[in-house]
Amino acid sequence: MRDFLKKLSPGWIRKLYNIVRKCVIKAEFRICRIFPIRKKRVVFCNVWGFGDNPKWIAKALRRADKSVEIIFVTDRSMAEHVPKGIRVVQTNTPKAVYYLATAHVWVDCNRKEPYIVKRSGQIYIQTWHGSLPLKKIEGDYAGLTEEYLENARRDSKMTDLCLSNGEFMNDIYRKAFEYECELMITGSARMDPLIRPNHRRVIRTKKEIAALVGENKGIQAIINGAQLNGTSRGETEPDVTQLNVTGREKAQEDYKIAVYAPTYRENGKQVEFPDLDKVRKKLEERFGGEFVIVARVHPLVRKKIKEYGSGIVDGSRLGDLYELLEASDVLITDYSNSLFEFAFAGKPVFLYASDAEEYEEERGFYFDYDKLPYPHSATTRELCDAIEDYSEFDHKNAQREFFENIGIKEDGKASRRIADVILRKVYRS
Hints:
CATH architecture of the largest domain: 3-Layer(aba) Sandwich
Helix content: 25-40%
Structural class: alpha/beta
CATH topology of the largest domain: Rossmann fold
Order of helices and strands: HHEHEEHEEHEHEHHEEEHEEHEHEHEHHH
Strand content: 15-25%
Number of helices: 15
Radius of gyration: 22 Å
């Protein structure tokens, strides 16, 4: 309701509201500084819900030491499948301010707002929301405003430790982020579920996708009439159950998932979708089995998903992207950084983009897009041909050579490794 009212308000009222809100939060921080720093309190922050690197680190920290108080600051409406022992607090509320002001350690994957100031004795760890970028970021990207960059430099000066997965990323952080802090190669926590998937969590994700398929009009395709059991929201993953599909028992693993994740165009240009019905049929011909295509797209282009058949679903309600990728078999994208992460797990990646030259000129890439070791396509027919011609042997060899040349270090154990780093900071600082 608050967001709805804000949209209806005149621009000057929204601007005034933001100014007042920032002043109030800044005053709350000053007041909360009278409270002592709690040695075993760690606050994680992610603006996109309970996800990304902070999610996997928080879970690993909880498993490693249950005496540490873990607070996760985010949008509560996006906080799903949160284990017991991790407290979720709504961002920019008095509670969030109090926990940030009194925590010993901060762990973030975004820049902090300018009204958030670190106290003496606090430790700020930055993971960033990525592991290997295709698109240029931060100071390397010419499209950012000076206001943003000014706050980014302030945030970089507050940072005590930045985590990465190799010297390639260290070089980017030093230059684009202007980091002078310690850089530590630990691997990327959000890569862990892709490299070392959890079977029960995969089943839970497939249950949620089956429910979305069941909501689609024309349920005749794929998982017709699925009856789902409830999903656990606690620390324990749900038991493996089965779906009743058109009168016959069928294990939930029997269908495959392809994720279509196009990048939103910041200039307002519409994303050109391939014909997802044709793509789905081609995937079934090439890889066998029944496929569901889960489209993870920006809200402004989500309505296009409804143009396709019942085997195409809107994945925006599935929460964490990396739980979705963990359960998926194929990724189709254009410029999303997730293409590297999915490929590192040895899974097929297909690039579909009709505006690659234009996008590269506007945004800028760290790699030559045409030389990336993935099948490229600009039309539905080209994409279907690439799927038909896919060679697992060639794909994995190309991937191995690509990552070896960059020196990326990922082993699926980054979350626990980073949790150990945090515990050393907690007990030794």
